[in-house]
Amino acid sequence: MTALIEEGAGEMDSRAFAEARDALAAEFVFDAGGDSVGVSARFLTENRDQAITLLREALVNPRFDQDAIDRVREQVLSILRSDEKDPDKIASNTFDRLAFGDHPYGSDGNGTIETVTALTRDDIVAAHKGALARDRIYVSAAGDITAEELGPLLDRLLGDLPATGTPLPGLAEVKLPPGVTVTDFPSPQSTVLFGQTGIPREDPDFFAAFILNEAMGGGRFTARLMSEVREKRGLTYGIGSYLVSYDLADMYLGQFSASNDKVAEAIQVVRDEWARIAREGLTDQELADTKTYLTGSYPLRFDGNGPIASILVGMQMEGMPIDYAVTRNAKIEAVTMDDIKRVAARLYQPDALHFVVVGQPTGL
Amino acid sequence: MLRSFGPATLALALALPAAAEPVTSFTLDNGLNVVVIEDHRAPVVVQMIWYRVGAADEPPGHSGIAHFLEHLMFKGTETVGPNQFSATVEAQGGDDNAFTSWDYTAYFQRIAADRLDLVMQMEADRMRNLRLTEEDVATEREVILEERAQRTDSSPGALLSEQMRAAQFMNHPYAIPIIGWRHEMEQLSREDALEYYQRFYAPNNATLVIAGDVDPEEVRALAEKHYGPIAPSDGITPRDRPQEPPQLAERRITLADERVSEPYVFRTYLAPERDPGNQKEAAALTVLAELLGGSGQTSVLPRALQFDRQVAVYSTAFYDGSSIDDATFGLVVVPAPDVSLETIEADMDRAIDDFLKTGPDPAALERIRTQVRAADIYARDSVDTLARRYGEGLSIGLTIEDIESWDEALAAVTSAPSSQPFSSPFRPRQNWTSRKSPRPGASQPGWSRITTSPSPPWKSSSAAAPRWTRQASAGPSTS
After folding, report:
1. Is the peptide bond before B421 cis (omega within 30 degrees of 0)?
2. Across the strands, what pairs with A62?
3. Burial A268-287 (b: 16+ CB within 10 A, else e)
């Protein structure tokens, strides 16, 4: 559905819509994620009203012409066929299936070859009505516009969408068993995705966990995983870990690639680091350095209109207050060494880790 | 649609800076070029140092040394301990990284503006005082071999691209992959790295770009203080690489790989690059790529192959003229499941022939002009983008005037389709005329086809190899 929104609206077919958009030098991006449909638009002040009118047509009056559906279906099927031979995609699909089973999180958002082949125009229309509804919209804008100017524009842009949409699914139960799952794939390297359950965004211990993860797997060269697996041992090009807060589940994930003959050693190093941090927490120096990094780098994220709008809309979706950006660094500073020790023991479960390995690893 | 297929960076080819923000430039006595781009919206600064040396300047048989040295530059100096460079930047809340291309090697930090003194001092220090142990070199060599395994050997698309370049460039070192050929990477030594470093890493072979919340006079004082005392290298010579001879024969490459599901045709042509004082042809080729494949809905190839008929699921064209020597112009088509590669190739050629006969839609050219102008406005929102444009442009020999007049050159493209330069990539090169001429219009130097792959070659956002790309996190950017 999201891929089809740009493929014709109102009086315009796909080409006419694209020509109108390009003539305004407006840019629209439509993206379907696990928890949300995101729409981002960038346009010039000089033709703001025309750009909004055009975007409204796409959001409110998409045509979903049968020829467009068939053309986009072939594109999605092409992606899905490629995904079947993509080790990263094989790893994430395997991991999601293990973790979430039959819950929607357990399957690829792009669907499968069978489900996409079977989709009808009615399915697409229903998905549009169910997802793009006024009871679930969050908006942020940044740039050359005031709140007073934005208000009426949004009424025009979104006012004719349905008042309510489809009910959302229930919480996802994380069923991930401990262990290692190997999927054979012909490649000199293995792709590894690993994880366990995470911690809710609204948990009082979240910021301690956030600091712990930054020190553990922040993807920076000084983070423990990067230092131990790459810098000291040369086992990988890069490794990182992430606290992932979905709306309906919380995960703690990590990933790396390593040559087939090194992957067993790399996995052992990850397990050892997981156990060490659970046991010892962080050093005073690590805690101090990580706090400085997180507080010092926070302003660097606000480096353009797009990033600012994206952060502000994310804050709303997470239920954070409007002053969050101002208070956030104080929350980082407030985390004590006692918090770190307690939360490290609670968060890191070395025996619960599951590793999905796609490749032809030796010694596993 | 098709974000996983589309060349996400195509629009970037148009996103070029005019003098959107105040830009100042000066040169220190030791030859260091300095460019200052002011952006006072946030108390942040970007320091980038661009060395005018890259993979195309490597000694024969030592492929990958430019990129390997880029990694080793983080190992420490006489005053900065092993791996403490990044640690120090990060402990100040900053980020740092580096990347290598055929024509340049660049290092950068993003950090609070009041820490510029510190990162300048550290960057100047490692321009001359790098210290490497045998152990550092041995471990880091394992890392670059893993990098090659991950980014190239695990990707049929990347392997094809590598084979394509090796065929496209018969004499020029652009034929050699930046990461290096594996058998040569395995032999790279500490001495190789230090020799290359001592010759090429010097103020008279570098451009410093400082962008952000800074005052040009303060930057000049800091640059004098930290970079000013460094002596120039006497090993810097003009970058006269071996040039291409006439390419007389079409070359076809077929790569079959079981890791591939969708077949595709990928064709490249040797094409002229942006030259100092002469960017007209490169601008026309940039616009030509936009006309042929810039938009999934309105461009020539998608219209002909995906809309008027449904014989392809994806098609595009690409060109990047930002290089010292010859560039390439490329075409890609992924056929529909029941269409053969032979058929789709013929269809692609017919679509291009038709375009050359009928010419570009004036409305399409006008849309591109509007987008060029908008890209100039949008570019003001990203000081990083501006810093890269100046750094790259100056590193490939363009002047600031060239860089700032690029969007004018793009907007000026109105060429009739059948005339030069629109048709030039598809014609025999001029220097062939003195030889036995191939069939008119039949020149197809260097093309290939394979079956599609996890990461198709046109997806790679740039030729540059970063030291490490942070993996996209599914986590909240808000935290």
Report:
1. yes
2. A9
3. ebbeebbebbbeebbeeebb
Work out the minimum CA distance from A138 to partner chain B, whole angstroms.
14
ipTM for the whole complex: 0.88
Contact B206, B127 (CB under 8 A): yes
Residue B261's nearest CA partner among B50, B454, B21 is B454
Residues A110, B345 contacting (CB under 8 angstroms)? no
* Alpha carbon separation from A314 to A210, A246, A294, B3, B314 (Å, rounded): 17, 12, 18, 21, 33
Q: Which residues contact B419 (CB under 8 A, 6 or more apart)?
A: none
| B436 bridge partner residues | none
Which among B21, B58, B70, B281 is annotated as catalytic? B70
A177 near A98, Cβ under 8 Å? Answer: yes
Classify A14 as helix, strand or coil. helix
Contacts of B308 (CB under 8 A, 6+ apart): none
Is B249:B435 a contact under the CB 8 Å cutoff?
Answer: no
Q: Do B44 and A244 touch (CB under 8 A)?
A: no
CA distance A226 to chain B (A): 11
| Tokens 């100040």 found at | B92
- Put simply, the answer to whether A236 touches B143 (Cβ < 8 Å) is yes
* Count of CA atoms in the C-beta half-sphere (13 A) of A205: 18
Closest Cβ opposite residue B91 in set A17, A42, A292: A292
Q: Which residue ranges does chain A devote to CATH 3.30.830.10?
A: 2-158, 179-359
Closest CA to A280 of A212, A355, A214, A232: A212
Are B228 and B78 within 8 A, CB to CB?
no
Interior CA angle at B440 toward B434 and B441, to 5°?
Answer: 125
Task: Going from the first residue of chain B to its last (479 residues), give the mean pLDDT of each consecutive group of 10, the final group possibly shorter.
Answer: 31 40 92 95 93 97 97 95 90 91 96 95 97 95 94 90 92 97 98 96 98 96 98 95 89 85 87 93 91 91 95 93 94 92 93 89 90 85 90 96 92 63 49 26 31 30 42 44
Three-class SS state of B206? strand
What number does CATH give the domain A2-158? 3.30.830.10
Between the CA atoms of A245, B461, A294 and B124, what dihedral angle is there, to the nearest 10 degrees? 170
Q: What percent of chain A has pLDDT over 70?
A: 100
In chain B, which among 411-470 make CB contacts under 8 A with chain A? 452-454, 468-470
In angstroms, the CA A304 to CA B150 distance is 32
What integer pLDDT is reported at residue B425 of this predicted model? 59
CATH superfamily, domain at A179-359 = Metalloenzyme, LuxS/M16 peptidase-like (3.30.830.10)
Q: Do A292 and B310 touch (CB under 8 A)?
A: no
What pLDDT digit, counting tens, does each position of B116-166 carry? 999 999 999 999 999 999 999 999 999 999 999 999 998 888 998 899 999
Question: Per the CB < 8 Å rule, is A25 touching B370?
Answer: yes
Touching A: B residues 142-201, CB under 8 Å: 142-143, 145-147, 149-151, 153-154
Please say if B70 is a catalytic residue. yes
The amino acid present at A363, given as its one-letter code, is G
Q: Name every residue whose Cβ is closer than 8 Å to that of residue B300 and which is 6 or more positions away in sequence.
A: B291, B292, B293, B351, B352, B355
Report chain B's C-alpha Rg in angstroms: 23
Predicted confidence band at A332 (pLDDT cuts at 50, 70, 90)? very high
Contacts with A, B 27-66, CB within 8 Å? 42-44
Strand order, beta sheet including A250-259: A179-184, A354-359, A189-197, A250-259, A239-245
Q: Which of B217, B430, B395 is nearest to B322 (CA)?
A: B395
User: Are the Cβ atoms of A237 and B140 closer than 8 angstroms?
Assistant: no
Contact check, Cβ <8 Å, B454/A292: no
